[in-house]
Amino acid sequence: MARELTIVQLNDSHGYVELHNELFWSAEGPVYRKAGGYARLATLLEGIRAERPGAVLAFDNGDTIHGTYPAVETKGEGLIPLLNALRFDAMTAHWEFAYGPAHLKKLAGRLAYPLLAGNVYEQGSGERLFEASRVYEAAGLRVGVVGIASNIVDKTMPPHFSEGVRFTLGVDEAREAVRQLREGERVDLVVVLSHLGFPQDLKLAEDVGGIDVLLSGHTHNRLWQPARVGETLVIQSGSHGSFLGRLDLRVDGGRVADARHRLITVDESIASDREMQARVDELMRPYRAGLGRVVGETATGLNRNTLLESTMDNLLLRGLLEATGAQVAFSNGWRYGAPVPPGPVTVNDLYNMAPMNPPVMTVELSGEEMREMLEENLERTLSRDPFGQMGGYLKRMLGLKLYAKVENPRGERVQQIFVGGEPLDPARAYTAAFVTEQGVGPKYGTNRQDTGVSTLEALERVFAQRGAVRAELEGTVTLV
Predict the structure, then answer these.
(1) Which of 471, 5, 82 is nearest to 273 (CA)?
(2) pLDDT higher than 90, residue 276
C-alpha cells in the first residue's frame, strides 16, 4: 500500500535566529529583502506537521550553532532551547566543531534529537563520536537516516576544531550504513543527511546505491527542484534560515513512486510563532543595544554571494590593508554572512562578516609561495573531482591581480599575477595581511606578526575615516 511522507530540510542557518537581510537575484542583479528567523521557521514547521500529522520528518543539515555573535558568544549553548522547540528529528555538523569536539559532544547531549555523523572518530579509541544512523517510524513507514558530517574539519580548518578526533570522507560509512538499514533493519526508505556539499553529494549518490533521498548541505545551493542521480533525489535549501525545503513523497513497495518538492522562502508574509519569538527575544536581549550601534554607512550592497570575489570581503580586506600597510591581503572564501544593503551599517553587520572577530595578522610571503598558495586554493575550490573540493568560495584577495584558466589541471591554473601593478617576482618577499589560518595557510610564509588590531576594529576604522563607503567588485580575479 502506498504511503505519503513529508521530509522537511533546513541547512546552513549559521545562527541566524532573527529576521535579517537576504540577497535575492533578479534580472538586474542582486536585490535585498528581509527573510528568515526561527519564529517564522517554527510557524512553517508546525503548519506542515498539522497538515500531515504523523507523516513528517524534519532534518537540520548543520552549520547551525555558529555564525552570528550570540551563537559564538554563547558557544552555541544559547541556541539549544530554540532548536529543541523546533523539534527536528536529527542533524549533522560542520562549523559546530568550531567550539571543539568535546564541547559539541556536550551540546549534542542537550538536544532532544540525535546528531548523526558516522564519519567522525575518536583518535584514541577509534570509536565513533556520534551515532551513524537512526531508524524512524512515520506515515506507517520505517525510515533509515544516515548522517555524514563535513569531512574538511581536520584538513582545512584550525586544529582545535578537530582536537582528538579524525574525519573520513564518509562514503564507505554511508555504504555500510545503507546496507545495514536495508538488510538488517528492513527499512522502507533511506535518507542520507550530509554536509559534504552539493557536488560531493551528487558523487556520493553515484558511488553509494540504495539511497532514496539525499539532503545536502554546506554549499548554500537554492535548489528550486531536486537533482536526480539514478533513483536518488537530492535537495539543498539555501542558507541563513531564509529557506525551508519540503519534499512530499509517495512511497510504494519500498521505492519512491512520486515526489513533489517546494523551496519555501521564509519571508515577512509568514507570521511569527509567539512562543518561539519569546525565546529568541530572551536570547537576544543582552546583545541588542551593542549590536544595534551604527558604525557608518555603505553606498555598496555588501554580500558574499559571488565565487571569485565579493563586495563584503573587499571591504574587509581594505580594512586589513589600511590597518597594516601590507601590500596584499587575503581572507577565507566564507559563504556565510547575511548581506548588508546600501545604508547604515551596525556592529551586528560587522559581526556577520567575521563573528569570531579574529586578530589581524601579517606574514612575509615570497612570490613563489604566493603563487603556490593560489594554485592550491584554485584546486580546493574548483577541483574536477568533487571530493577534492575542500573550501568555500575562492580565497578573497586585494592588492593583486590574478589571471587564471580554471579548465587547466591542478597546479597549472595560474597564468599571471600582478602586485602593485608589477609582475609577481618569485624571489621577492611581500608583506601580506590576513585574519585566520584559512586566509594564509600555516605552511606559507615567515615572520608572522599579530598587529594587536582585531578584525572589527579594522572594519570600524574604514567607516570612521570617510562618509558612505564603497566596496565594488574590482576584477581582482579574471578567468581567461
Answers:
(1) 82
(2) yes
- Phi, psi (degrees; rounded to nearest 5) at 160: -70, -15
Domain ranges of the chain: 3-284, 292-479
Cα 224 off chain centre by: 19
What is the CATH number that goes with domain 3-284?
A: 3.60.21.10
279, with CB counted inside 10 A (0-12, 13-18, 19+), is buried
Q: What is the SS3 assignment for 354? A: coil
Residue 423 predicted with pLDDT over 90: yes
Name the residue type at position 220. H
Beta-bridge mates of residue 192 = 146, 214
Predicted local confidence at residue 437, as pLDDT: 67
Q: Which amino acid is at 143?
A: V
Report whether CATH 3.30.43.10 matches the domain 292-479. Answer: no
| Strand 232-235 relative to strand 227-229, pairing | antiparallel
Percent of the chain with pLDDT strictly greater than 70: 100
Q: What is the mean pLDDT of residues 22-44?
A: 97
Say if residues 154 and 167 touch (Cβ distance below 8 Å). yes
Rg (alpha carbons) of the chain, rounded to whole number: 22
According to DSSP, residue 187 is labeled -
The helix or strand, by DSSP H or E, that contains position 122, with its residue range, turns out to be strand 120-122
Task: Kindly state the average pLDDT of the residues 98-106.
Answer: 98
pLDDT score for 441: 80
141 grid coordinates: 513507514
